[in-house]
Amino acid sequence: MGLLTVSPSPHVRSEMSTQKIMLMVILALVPAIAAGTIVFGPRALLLVIFCAAVSMMTELVCRKLMQKENTISDGSAMLTGVLLALNLPVTLPLWQAAVGCIFAIAVVKQLFGGLGCNFANPAITGRIFLLLSVGSDMTTWAKPFYYLDAPFFGLFETSGSAALDGLTGATPLVTGDAGLMELLLGNTGGSLGETSALALLIGGIFLIVTKLISPATPVAYLGSLAALTFVQVLITGGEMTDVLYALLSGGVLLGAFFMATDYVTTPITNKGKIIFGIGCGILTFVIREFASMPEGCSFSILLMNLLTPYIDRFTMTKPVGAGTPEKEGA
Amino acid sequence: MNNLNTFTKGLLKENPVFVSLLGMCPTLAVTTGAFNGLGMGLSTTFVLICSNLVICLLRKAIPAQVKLPCYIVIIATFVTLIQFLLHGFVPSLYTSLGAFLELITVNCIILGRAEMFASKNGPVASVLDGAGMGLGFTLALFLMGSVREIFGSGTWLGLTVPGMTGHTMSLFVMPAGGFFVLGLLIAVVCKLSSRKPPKKMGCAGCPNASACSAKCEEA
Known about the structure:
The complex is a heterodimer. Chain A has a two-stranded antiparallel sheet with strand order 1-2. Chain A has one domain: Ammonium transporter fold (Orthogonal Bundle), CATH 1.10.3430. By secondary structure, chain A is mainly alpha-helical. Chain A has 15 helices and 2 strands. Chain A is globular and about 75 Å long. Chain B is an all-alpha fold. Chain B has one domain. Chain B contains 9 helices and 2 strands, in the order ααααααααββα. The longest helix of chain B is centred in the middle third of the chain and has 31 residues. Classes of the chains: A mainly alpha, B mainly alpha.
């Protein structure tokens, strides 16, 4: 009888749910969170938990106000909070982090209809909102292991506090003097999630192996950025390690694996994903080299988010056997 | 339409900025501060009232073929007047408004009211319409300017707002913040006037329908 059972579609069933995917992605971020906590001290962990809590609270309040079902249990708000926290400098005042989370969840996500309807990645947009709003606090980078010299391990010290004098510096992306090994392990300044390239790579590979993300976007993104840097090295003369330096410094790895692979705001087809990744790579390179901003990763992903509907339209797959109406008549 | 309604419709129901989305250029450009917004709004109100009055008095004398150039000449006259007045009495405002003061001449609210209202109605109604629309515009600019100044610079009309020192967000005084605040204020106004988006786009849902001269085909 089993062979004769007739049921409506969908015929392919999966144990995967939104909640599981979100938790897996957060699991993949654990190495980066751990690296950030080791390099920047307990305040990094505090910021991650704080952002996740504020994001979930905002989600709860928004859904209540809009009289829609409560979606806090799908974990997407928590993931947004964690991702946003990983994009912040460790010394950012808590109220600013809270404003970023509220903006990301309330304005970018819930005003457009909640998970699945947001036009751009909430965490990226929250970061850009903060970068444009409180630029100086967002670009004050604590030196690695600064917390060993700060009172209370730097738990209560925010940027601008006198106790942090001499404990902050530019990111290696600007100075360009960090060693590749330092970049790999995270012994450099920067946002609390982007310091250790190794931790991000572990998380990214975990997501690819578990088939949660397709390798198309990260490979296209990092590949195009590497290719452009390679051409630049050929033209201006420099060392080949500059190519690796471009990939390992700044937020590119975090962006490529965790932001540019967001299901909602990136293209569906593989072809579209490759176009998306290459676009991100080109924009990041252009912003890094020619614009006044030190890092272009978040802006490039936001811009490509906005182009995603058009990429999707151009790369739409044709159903098997489908033809144009004219041909059918002929 | 009675006179009171002619005046009040411009304040909220047909607010040129929040409902008709006219005059976006000065709305976004000069509202980095509440005082600038107020100055721009009142200057526009002055020009709007005067030009509405003159255009409605001359509406029989102006030939239809050249009405637009005539309107522009009349409006430009009053713009020049207010420019001299501001230059003489409030030079700081004159400097900060800059080219946007001269651009009142081609502000689509003024041209729109001349075309839609003053060229069809009597002097009393035209003046009231100009005052209502102008004050609606002023209200919108003042609100925009207040929000952006308080959050962006921590001051209001130049006075320091307690509690905002060190808590300002420069996004609000940037162009992107202008669009952001405008969007939020439009949402609030829609909520206050409990306006629902039209089921289908057409003349029925258009706030300018009453004044529109184009004949609607689908009706």
